[in-house]
Amino acid sequence: MARFDLAYGRATVSVNVPDANLLGTLKPRDMPAVDLPSVFASAWNSPIGMADPAAALRGGGKTVFVITDHTRKTPTRLLFPLIWERICGLVSPADVTLLVATGTHRAPTEDELERMLGDLRRSFTVAIHNCDRDVVEIGKSSRGTPIFVNRLVAEADHVVTIGHVGMHYYAGYSGGRKNILPGVAGRATIEANHAQMSHPQSQACVYEGNPISEEMVEAARLVGVDFVVDVVMNGRGEIAKLIIGDPEGAHAEARRFWDEHCVVRLPERADVVIASAGGHPKDIDLYQAYKAQYTAARAVRDGGIIYLLAACPDGIGHGVFQDWIERSACPADVLSIFECEGFKLGGHKAVYLAQDLARVLVYLQSELPEDTVRRFFLRPATDPRAALAEAEKRFGKTYRVLVMPHAGETFPISDAA
C-alpha cells in the first residue's frame, strides 16, 4: 500500500492507494530552495532587461509597491526588506505605500496582513485595493478596454510589483503584469479583460497570442511599472527562483523556469486522480481551490473520477460563482445561464466546473457543509476509499490511480491533450 501525506489547509491528510492500482505520482520536478540573500543580491546586480533597478527610483517621489494578497504565497515580508536595503537612500519611507493587489478578492484580515507583512506594517503605509472604489482611467487597451487602476498607482512616481509566477488557467501565467490587471484594476476593466476567456488562446501556459494576457501586458505598460520582483515557489512553499528586472523580460525568464519544472508529461490518463490543492492559502475557498481541479481534469479519462482535497475554510469565495450554481438544477444549466447572460466575473468559474462535470465525477474533501458540496454537484467525502470503491465499480479491479500532491502547480500534458 502506497501512502501519501497531502497538504490540506494548514495540515496534511494521509491517503493510501493499493500498490497494484498506482499509476504514479504527478508532481513538479524537484526545485531546491535558494539562499535568498545571495540570490537576491545576484539578481539585483544583474537584472534582466535593464541596467540598474535602483536607478529607476532615483529622484524619489511617491513609490507604490504592488504586492499579492492573502490568496498567494509570495513571501513579501522576506523580499521587501532586501529591496528596501538597496533603495532606502533614494526613497523616503513616508513616500512608500505597500498596496495589496486583491483584484476582486475580499480584503485580507488583520491576522492575514500580519502574516503577510509583519513589522513592515508598522514602518510603511499599507493600503488595500478595492476594485469598486477610487479607481481612475489611465487609457485604453488596443482592444478598446478602458484601463481603470487604483488611484495610488495612477498617481505614483514609481511602481514596482512583487509577485509569484505560476500557471493561470486562462491568463496563461500569474505574476508580473497580473499584479496590475487584475490586481489593482477596476471591476469594469477586470470583467472586460476576463470576458475573453472563451478565446481559444485563453489557456493555461499560453502567453503569446493569449488576449487576456496581452491586455494585462498593455495595462502594465500604461501604468509604467519600473521593474518587477517575482519568485517561483516549490511545493514546500520555498523560493526556488527569483528574478528582478524589466516586466516582460524578467517574467519570460520566470515562465521558462516554471515550464521546465512544472509542465509534466502524462504516462496515460488515469481512472482516478487524487489531487491536493496544495494547502493554505491555495485551498482557502472553493473559488481558489478550483485551480487544482482544473489541472487534475487534464490527467483523468472521460468518465473518470477526481478526488480533491481542499479545506475551503472561507467557504465558496465568490458571490457570482455561488449564484450561478444555486440557480442551476444540473451542471448543464450553468452553461445555459452563460449563453443567456454572457460573461460575468465569478460565473466563469462555474462554467469551467460545469464543463468538468460533463465528463468526470468529482469528490470533494473539505470543511464545507455536505449540503453545500452537493449543491455544487460534487460528492462530499472524508476518505478517498469512497472514490476508489467507485472506481472499482466503474473500471474493475485494475483501475489506475494518479496522485497529484501539488495539483495547482502541476500542468499535465499528453499527446492527446
Strand content: 15-25%
Our count of helices gives 15
Please tell me how large the radius of gyration is: 21 Å
CATH architectural label of the largest domain: 3-Layer(aba) Sandwich
Distance between the termini: 30 Å
For CATH, the homologous superfamily of the largest domain is named as LarA, N-terminal domain
DSSP E strands, number: 20
Question: Low-confidence parts lasting 5 or more residues at pLDDT below 50?
Answer: none
CATH class of the largest domain: Alpha Beta
Tell me the structural class: alpha/beta
CATH topology of the largest domain: Rossmann fold
Measured as a percent range, the helix fraction is 25-40%
Largest β-sheet summary: 6 strands, parallel
Mean pLDDT: 95
Please give the domain count. Answer: 2
- In the sheet with the most strands, the strands line up as 3-19-15-16-17-18
Net shape: globular
What does this molecule look like?
The structure is a single chain. Helix 10 (286-299) packs parallel to helix 13, helix 11 (319-326) crosses helix 13 (347-357) and helix 12 (331-341) crosses helix 13. The strands form 6 sheets. A 6-stranded parallel β-sheet has the order 3-19-15-16-17-18. A 6-stranded mixed β-sheet has the order 6-5-4-9-12-13, sandwiched between helices. The chain is an alpha/beta fold and 417 residues long. The chain has helices at 36-45, 53-56, 76-87, 110-117, 120-123, 151-154, 187-194, 211-223, 247-262, 286-299, 319-326, 331-341, 347-357, 370-375, 385-395, and strands at 2-8, 11-17, 22-25, 63-68, 96-101, 125-128, 135-140, 146-150, 158-164, 167-168, 172-173, 227-233, 239-245, 263-265, 270-276, 300-309, 361-365, 379-380, 401-404, 411-413. The chain has 2 domains: 2-26 and 266-413, 2-enoyl-CoA Hydratase, Chain A, domain 1 (Alpha-Beta Complex), CATH 3.90.226.30; 36-261, 3-Layer(aba) Sandwich (Rossmann fold), CATH 3.40.50.11440. It has 15 helices and 20 strands. Strand 15 (270-276), helix 10 (286-299) and strand 16 form a beta-alpha-beta unit. The protein is globular. The relative contact order is 0.15. The two termini are 30 Å apart.
